Amino acid sequence: MDSSKEPEPTGEFKCQLCGLTAPYTYYGQKPPNTHSIVILEDSYVMKDPFTPDKEKFLILGSLCSLCRRAVCVGAECSLFYTKRFCLPCVNENLQAFPLEIQEDMDKRKPQSKCLTRKKKDSRT
To answer: What is the pLDDT of residues 20-39, one digit of tens each?
Structure first.
């Protein structure tokens, strides 16, 4: 019997903002086959499909610490500042975040508008 069998997916992670879906093999802070790694938040994790190394993994996402919706770690969907926050919650509570985060969010706004405009233009 082969003891190096791939872990079976536990379920499917789906970002409630962008719709990203991927099978995850673990949810928590200490992924299997990792010796000294502890993630700072409960996360949806999958084995890294790009390497045979069992200790390598990808963090797909987590739950927003305010609204509890599942969000991916993509910069368009969430940010981590002591905890995971979805961008809608960050924007709703922007004044509660440090100035550095507020400035970072201001920088993100023009980019997202450009992306939206490009998507609309590509349809016509």
So the answer is: 999 999 999 999 888 888 99
